[in-house]
């Protein structure tokens, strides 16, 4: 009897969730507006939770731009380069992060480009764009590359001259050098 009551309760909860999502979707539907296709709901997200990133990547491959609905709000996701450029560059002011996202992001990112809107964002973008220009990155990367190449040559020389016949994990060395390049340049 315990199993049956649990099954009934879960079924009832699922039915209520589906009804709530359908009601919300119907309420959001306006015949004068064109919406991106609804590609999933909270139920789809729960079913695909162990592989949620892959699921959303598959949706992006299928629809390019799509909506996901949950019980309280919907969200639009896009993988279309033109839309991404429009949101991040052309018409950024219409797509601000708002105070909710600022409160979440500012603890870890401060007033950096990923957390702020408006004038602060413009200032951060201007500073960042000059810092990441091709010439600046090339000059900085060359100096760090030379330093890391000398370190790598030393590691290889030590391994070659030692009698231990120990293998070198070159991928680990290259990953460390990549991380050091990024952290030195960004911070």
Radius of gyration: 25 Å
Query: How do the strands of the widest beta sheet line up side by side?
Result: 1-2-3
| Low-confidence residue ranges | none
What's the assembly state of these chains? single chain
Tell the overall outline: extended
Q: Strand portion, in percent?
A: 5-15%
* N- and C-termini, Cα separation: 61 Å
GO molecular function: abieta-7,13-dien-18-ol hydroxylase activity; heme binding; iron ion binding
EC number: 1.14.14.145
Pfam family, one: p450
Keywords: Heme, Iron, Metal-binding, Monooxygenase, Oxidoreductase, Signal
Explained architecture:
With 187 residues, the chain is mainly α. It has two domains: 2-95, no CATH class; 134-186. The protein has eight helices and three strands, in the order αβααββααααα. It has helices at residues 2-28, 42-47, 52-63, 81-90, 98-109, 118-131, 134-161, 170-186; strands at 38-41, 65-69, 74-78. The chain has a three-stranded mixed sheet. β2 and β3 form a beta hairpin. α7 runs antiparallel to α8. The termini are far apart.
């Amino acid at each position: 009897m315990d199993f049956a009551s649990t099954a009934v309760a879960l079924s009832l909860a699922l039915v209520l969730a589906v009804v709530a999502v359908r009601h919300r979707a119907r309420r959001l539907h306006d015949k004068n507006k064109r919406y991106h296709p609804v590609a999933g709901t909270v139920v789809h997200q729960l079913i695909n939770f162990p592989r949620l990133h892959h699921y959303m990547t598959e949706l992006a491959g299928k629809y390019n731009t799509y909506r996901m609905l949950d019980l309280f709000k919907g969200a639009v996701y896009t993988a279309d380069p033109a839309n991404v450029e429009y949101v991040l560059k052309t018409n950024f002011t219409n797509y601000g992060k708002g105070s909710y996202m600022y409160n979440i992001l500012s603890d870890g990112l401060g007033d950096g480009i990923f957390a702020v809107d408006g004038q602060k964002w413009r200032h951060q973008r201007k500073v960042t764009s000059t810092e990441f220009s091709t010439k600046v990155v090339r000059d900085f990367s060359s100096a760090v590359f030379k330093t890391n190449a000398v370190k790598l040559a030393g590691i290889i020389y030590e391994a070659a001259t030692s009698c231990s016949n120990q293998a070198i994990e070159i991928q680990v060395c290259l990953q460390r050098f990549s991380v050091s390049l990024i952290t030195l340049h960004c911070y």
